[in-house]
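The protein record filed here.
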Amino acid sequence: MPFAATRPQLAHLTAVMDDLKARGTYFKLRVLDDEQGPVCHYDGREVINLASNNYLGLCNHPKLREAAIAATRKYGVGSGAVRTIAGTMRIHMELEEKIAAFKGVEACVVFQSGFSANAGTVSSILGKEDFILSDELNHASIIDGARLSKAKIKVFRHKDVAHAEELLKEVQNEPGRKLVITDGVFSMDGDIGPVGELADLCERYGAIMMVDDAHASGVLGRNGRGSVDHFHATSKVDVQVGTLSKAIGALGGYVCGSRDLIDFLYHRARPFLFSTSHPPSVAATCIAAFDLLESEPERIARLWDNTWYFKKQLTDAGFDVGGKTTPASETPITPIILGDGRRTMDFSRALFDQGVMATGIAFPTVSEGKARIRTIMTSEHTRPQIDRALDIIVSTAKTSGIL
């Protein structure tokens, strides 16, 4: 039976795709043929992988595999319900208790994704009489949550604490709560948010402080406790959001804070209320991952050694890795800024053909004129692999007229 063609009612979608193709920013999903590693196979081609969020190599760590298998054998493959009906298993509570203890807070709630953790939290704790002050480069999940809350949104210039204070002064006598929110690490540029300064600002003005630590979890702070710990601001941050999908190596997101905050989210956060809970294998995997953060700190040290080496080599070769036309990268996320979307996507495809998986990012994920190749270093890349990737990046850039 032949597939049905696009009906006229959806012709506008075809027009958008045709426009992306004309601009050179259309892409097809690359398919991973084996496990997520520093060298793996996409679309049948062996490549050095510089595109994964698997910062610490935990996606395929033997202890996490064992934990997942053991939990599946003991509890089955699914929970069978949402958390508030019949889907809260003891292992879900163990994971939340583990994260809360790791973060040094009273309580934690786990969501099905980092995106839903952000969007569900912002949209539930504020209403139309309230104000949100958000960094202009905050993650899309924060933006969506802010819109869903119907609160009044004010955007401060990127990492500009003085501008955030100006906005707080403007609304301090207005009725309603005030929430200041920032990424701990910004996902496209790899720079670190001014968490400590913003937390102090919130203290002075009585505002709620919230941090999205998705790309800081497992990367910054003691044993990967995140940017809040990195800035010694745990007692001043009311809402900490983290992810289980990046350095932790599995799937999901979480929110940490006071017991009252978490109990409120149990009752009001819509993604929590209306999504089936994690399979027990995922919860067990995450518990094992947090144990590894405590017992194998050398992984984080190795991640940073690789990161600084890779950045220096790219900079020495003449690439713009942030700091010229964009914020300077300070973490394992290292963008190669090219500006033009078509040129960026062509460069990404050329790198893949030569054996390097490095994703091109263009509008609307980033602003027009800010297209880049986003690279991410991990603890598991060896120096020969990094050097080989650098050779390919430099030689391909020269061939393409980028260098």
Summary: The first helix runs from residue 11 to 23. Residues 106 and 258 are 5 Å apart (CA to CA). The chain has two domains: 8-59+297-399, 61-295. The radius of gyration is 22 Å.
